[in-house]
Amino acid sequence: MTATSGRLLVWSPRIIGILVSLFIGMFALDAFSEGKPFLHALPDFLIHLSPAFVLLTIVGASFRWPWIGAVAFICLAAVYAMTMSKGRLDWMLTISGPLLVVGALFLWSWFERGKLHES
């Protein structure tokens, strides 16, 4: 494995994981609906941000232990697909798809960690 591909394999799940958490966090903006005062919407906004904070925490732990990211992101993708998508394929692909991709990248990074340290 070349040094460039090794760095790409190490950094891509982390960067994409951060981007996925930002994408999930974007849905929290829905708390600021029309006619609702800012101070009343703020607690709802923070509650709706909690999934994004959970994902960021997982990405943070995965910097040291990529297996945590692999297990957590794959499990979150499966749990969302089975419970929250309610048979809607578009919801499942929109939320579970990126989670599954990040989990697979962390898994690949974890399996290749020996080769990454050699180069």
Describe this structure in words.
The protein is mainly α and 119 residues long. It has 6 helices and no strands. 81% of the residues lie in helices and 0% in strands. It starts with a helix and ends with a helix.
- Strand count: 0
Count the domains.
1
Query: What's the tally of helices?
Result: 6
Radius of gyration: 17 Å
* Low-confidence parts: none
Fold blueprint:
Elements: H1 3-26, H2 38-48, H3 50-62, H4 66-84, H5 89-111, H6 113-118
Features:
119 residues, mainly alpha, 6 helices, 81% helix
Structure summary:
With about 120 residues, the chain is mainly α. It has helices at about 5-25, 40-50, 50-60, 65-85, 90-110, 115-119.
